[in-house]
Amino acid sequence: MAAPQDGPWLDDAAGRLVRPYTVSNGRTRPTAALDLLSMVMTTGALPAGQMGPEHTDALGLIGSRPTSVAEVAAHLRLPAVVTKVVLSDLVDCGALTAKAPSFRTQNPTDRSLLEAVLDGLRRRL
Questions:
Q1: Which of 1, 39, 58, 88 is most buried, taking the most CB atoms under 10 A from its CB?
Q2: Which of 27, 20, 38 is nearest to 85 (CA)?
């Protein structure tokens, strides 16, 4: 049975009861340019219109501190592409701002950079 904090969205035996493509309305491409290292932050503006529970959960998780797309995906337990679509919806309606990562190195796939990101994620989770 689902844990109390998970509500009806998760079930221990079946896993996620709402499939990821349902969360994103079948969309697989975000309208905002986001990658896993992009930082998102709330603007204080409330989304106009009806948003899904994942949108609300994302806003509550992010708050006023910059949070990476990867961290949001991990906490929401959603695939990265679905999380990007959800966050993109929030950027489009003005509830979030997004900032692309700035690399101090010319090679964003530099092994030391990737290890530092992995170490940071392990400490946070």
A1: 58
A2: 27
Q: Which of 48, 44, 57, 35 is nearest to 101 (CA)?
A: 35
Tens of pLDDT along 62-117? Answer: 988 899 999 999 998 888 888 898 899 899 889 999 998 776 556 667 788 788 88
Radius of gyration of the chain (CA): 15
> Model confidence over 26-39: pLDDT tens digits?
666 777 888 888 99
Round to whole Å and give the CA distance between 61 and 65: 9
Q: Which residues of 20-31 are buried (b: 16+ CB within 10 A; e: fewer)?
A: beebbeebeebe
> Residue 68, exposed/middle/buried by CB under 10 A (0-12, 13-18, 19+)?
buried
CB–CB of 69/41 below 8 Å?
no
Structural tokens at position 56: 């609300």
